[in-house]
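Run log // design_07
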């Protein structure tokens, strides 16, 4: 029996990646503030997650939610929207999922929720569940999203997976991304694993590919059955070297964010 996955923010880049490779056994209910022209067989709905009534309607009858909707940058032009959309919108999604009896919610968090953490000494990998240390106001909203996920897991028994996404693009374009890249294919594999795996409580997992230069743990992904296949090293010859003044930023999870944002 096919189940239904509500995807918020589905018109964005990650949503478009998922459309190419939807999780097996799931029908996608796609939603965004601005709805694109639908291809045959696509189910699109207009949704602003800051509207609790509309969010409740979108959650009605679904089996799980992938919450990608939000403001995805830290620019001054959008900063006033970060908290209402990323925090208030996440609360509305979790409220609506709870009211609709939806058990599994995947929240698109970010490496910037923990961006002030540095590379551990001795080559040890950074754990999936490292505590939040946001590196920007954007990172603060992602840390708040994670806290909301933990609260709803504890209070209502919602099964929450926090996807701590690295750098999800078609290909890596910087030296940092050789460590933090999450390929489109691996993003879709991560979503599929997060939907299939048994989950208790609120579980954080790094959203990163099988990169040779990766220094984030694989344990969270292993526990979910997430097995990335792609390696940014395949693109290393095409990536320009990091300017000397930016090399220290490679030691922090958030890259240049800790040094360059307020």
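design_07 sequence
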């Amino acid at each position: 029996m096919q189940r239904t996955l509500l995807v918020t923010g589905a018109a964005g880049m990650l949503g478009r990646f998922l459309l190419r490779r939807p999780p097996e056994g799931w029908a996608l209910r796609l939603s965004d503030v601005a709805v694109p022209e639908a291809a045959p067989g696509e189910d699109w709905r207009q949704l602003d997650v800051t509207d609790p009534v509309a969010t409740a309607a979108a959650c009605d009858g679904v089996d799980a939610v992938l919450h990608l909707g939000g403001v995805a940058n830290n620019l001054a032009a959008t900063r006033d929207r970060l908290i209402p959309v990323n925090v208030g919108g996440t609360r509305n999604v979790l409220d609506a999922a709870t009211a609709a009896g939806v058990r599994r919610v995947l929240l698109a968090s970010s490496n910037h929720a923990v961006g002030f953490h540095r590379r551990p000494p001795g080559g040890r990998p950074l754990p999936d569940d490292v505590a939040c240390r946001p590196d920007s106001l954007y990172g603060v909203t992602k840390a708040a999203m994670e806290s909301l996920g933990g609260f709803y897991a504890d209070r209502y028994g919602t099964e929450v997976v926090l996807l701590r996404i690295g750098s999800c693009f078609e290909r890596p374009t910087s030296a940092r991304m050789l460590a933090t890249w999450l390929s489109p294919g691996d993003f879709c594999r991560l979503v599929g694993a997060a939907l299939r795996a048994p989950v208790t409580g609120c579980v954080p997992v790094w959203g990163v590919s099988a990169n040779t230069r990766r220094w984030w743990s694989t344990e969270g992904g292993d526990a979910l059955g997430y097995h990335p296949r792609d390696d940014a090293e395949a693109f290393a010859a095409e990536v320009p070297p990091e300017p000397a003044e930016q090399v220290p930023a490679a030691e922090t999870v958030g890259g240049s964010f800790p040094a360059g944002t307020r």
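Residues 3-260 form a domain with the Rossmann fold fold (CATH 3.40.50.720).
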